[in-house]
Amino acid sequence: MQKKHLFFLLLILGTAFWGVSFAYVKAGVADGSPFVFLTYKFALAALALAVLFAKRFRRLDWNTIFAGTLIGLPLLFGNVFQTIGLQHTSVTNTAFITGLDVLLIPFFKWSFFRKPVKGRIWVSCSVALLGLYLIVAKHGLNLNAGDIWVMACAVFFASYVMTVGCFAHRFDAMLTVIVAMTVCSLGSGLGAIFDEQAIWIPSEMQFWKGVLITGLLGTAYMYGIQSSAQKYIEEEKVALTYLCEPIFAAVAGVIMLGESLNARTIFGGLLILVALLIAELDLKCLRPREPKRGGASL
Q1: pLDDT over 60 at 263, yes or no
Q2: Contact between residue 167 and residue 74 where contact means Cβ atoms under 8 Å apart
Q3: How many whole angstroms separate alpha carbon 296 and alpha carbon 241?
Q4: In sequence order, which residues have a C-beta less than 8 Å from that of residue 293 and are 6 or more positions away?
Q5: Radius of gyration over alpha carbons of the chain, in Å?
Q6: In whole angstroms, what separates CA 124 from the centre of its chain?
Q7: Helix, strand, coil shares, percent, the chain, to 5
Q8: CA distance 233 to 238
Q9: What is the pTM of this model?
């Protein structure tokens, strides 16, 4: 198996962790400050990766710290704006609008970096967004002021993926992601200082369970894998794997919460999977080979 295919599967596994952890996040921040939750989540992720890859710190220099900071800032602002948006809009709107980064990434790549984007990628992104809409927007989308914050979140998440791609081949992936997680933890902690609801040592076990699961699986694993994967996978394909999250969230809801799946959700999930296949499909391989010219004449 080629490395890019292996990392593609590992990224999809990471979205499974995202989907399963959604219920834990919702319970963890129910009565407390989301900034405190983010502070602990990113701190745990940074610590876990630092322990696992401690030997790599010999290579740490100021250039790597600078690159990791540039990677961490858009991820921090994306999380903050998403948190603010969730306070003023629905989960449905948040999920769909955040998913717009799937289209923003190839647009940024084409317009700002002057890199070509294959036609099948645009088709794939459009099909994936339609599938996401079918899953999350069961009662339509009613846009409001909070959606503006979520739109900003989508821009920053797209910028994060592009920034990782920019530095993926120039610096140690794990060192930059450890620095990025540290930046996110410090930035979230700064936000918590100005949050009147902030309780630094919550007593609810659901809070700490959410931090543990999301910090290790949804953050340390996912962003660590992504930073390594972008050496082999294009940015727009990474974003497409993100849209597997609602599929796994729906499956987790059936298994963990006893929810039911309807035809709309199943069809939307199938469209997202089709979109992933379109992105990976090499149409040239499907074309019939032309007979060689210049053969011996009879």
Answers
A1: yes
A2: no
A3: 50
A4: none
A5: 21
A6: 17
A7: 75, 0, 25
A8: 7
A9: 0.81
Q: Do residues 162 and 105 touch, judged by C-beta distance below 8 A?
A: yes
SS3 per-residue string spanning 41-70: HHHHHHHHHHHHCHHHHHHCCHHHHHHHHH
Q: Quote the DSSP letter at residue 33.
A: -
DSSP code, position 218? I
Contact (CB, 8 A) for 183 and 72: yes
Q: How many residues does the chain have?
A: 298
State what percent of residues in the chain have pLDDT above 90.
29
The average pLDDT across 45-50 equals: 96
- Integer angstrom CA distances of residue 297 from 261, 289, 292, 293, 294: 64, 20, 13, 11, 8
Residue 186 has pLDDT above 90, yes or no: yes
Task: Map residue 138 onto helix, strand or coil.
Answer: coil
Q: Per-domain residue ranges for the chain? A: 3-280
Chain centroid to CA 80: how far? 15
**Alpha helical stretches, state H, 29-144:** 34-52, 62-86, 91-98, 101-111, 119-136
The secondary structure element, H or E, covering residue 240 is helix 235-242
Burial class of residue 273 (count of CB atoms within 10 Å of its CB; 0-12, 13-18, 19+)? middle
pLDDT digits (tens, 9 = 90+) for 211-240: 999 899 989 999 999 988 888 888 888 888
Task: Judge whether 279 and 120 are in contact, CB under 8 Å.
Answer: yes
User: What is the maximal distance between C-alpha atoms in the chain?
Assistant: 90
